[in-house]
Amino acid sequence: MEVKQPYVLAAIVISFIVIVIIFLTSSNKDETRPIDDRPDVPRAVKGWPQDDLELGQVSGVSVNSALQPVIFHRADRVFDQYTFNATSHFQHISRGPITQSTVLTLDPKTGKVLGRWGDNFFYMPHGITIDRHDNLWITDVAMHQGFKFKPGELEPTLVFGEKFQPGPDENHLCMPTSFAIASTGEIFLADGYCNSRVLKYNALGQLLKIIPSKDEFLPLQIPHGITLLESLDRICIADRENMRVVCPRAGLYNFEGKKDPALIIQKPDMGKVYDVAAKGNLIYAVNGPTASFINIEGLTINPETEEIIDRWSPPEGFGLPHAIAVCPNGSSLYVAEIHPNKIWKFELVAPN
What we know:
Blueprint: H1 5-30, E1 41-44, E2 58-63, E3 69-73, H2 86-94, E4 103-106, E5 113-117, E6 125-130, E7 136-140, E8 145-149, E9 158-160, E10 178-181, E11 187-191, E12 197-201, E13 207-211, E14 223-229, E15 234-239, E16 244-247, E17 263-265, E18 272-279, E19 282-288, E20 298-302, E21 307-312, E22 321-326, E23 332-338, E24 341-349
Antiparallel strand pairs: 1-24, 2-3, 3-4, 4-5, 6-7, 7-8, 8-9, 10-11, 11-12, 12-13, 14-15, 15-16, 16-17, 18-19, 19-20, 20-21, 22-23, 23-24
């Protein structure tokens, strides 16, 4: 039977298209991650800040709605291994509050100081978080307290814990480290060095939940930093001494009742994770000194796959990064160090 020429040509064309599709599909399987799905890469901004800010240990950083970084530093106070000693802790308190300004607002382009406050109030600064309404949420480990400050106000409008009175019950804190604030107004507070727990409050400061719960096996050891992935209903915790990031359910209003197990990101070379910050459904984190064979670096984490998908640092390297924050528009991030006393700016750029 004679085959007509148009059918032959059509068969050849279809076969060619199928071969191309198979080739492209197999090529994509060789890629570890599609390029459009790769995370933005932090790139250190040279010469930022332009001036020496004469900082103490920079323990916290966050970014306001004007994209200005706000840092929390300790001026002439030093938090080190001796701070846990009762005598040393008492000496910090007996010296009275830090007389210098501890909260500085910086120009995002130059790093120049635009505003300063926080003198004669704090004893040992630790964490600072700015919510979507520009409220400042601050922790002080010597005072054993956490505070909410409304924009422009110098007195707190909400106080957590009892001043200079550590404790493990619902009304006391013990060296709290960090806040995370949900868009629903719910408050998460890492009650870090002694109690090793995360407390969840409503917007009025009434306790709703303690993480981990009594029937939940999720031992924490110094929850040092926290961040929210609201679309996943996860509160992600820098579980420092366990050298991991854990993301249990946050229990936000639209996810209430879900009992999925915590996501756990833990790798042999991860090191002690000091802080975490969210961008979309990814986490940017920093670790600190752990062992000679573990690099001090930034980590980009996909919590859903429980994988580290990128590692990064400035050309000069990190010393002891303590806190990290991502800009609200996702264009840059900042890393605060306590040795050397420094604030870094990184642009978040698309991967090559």
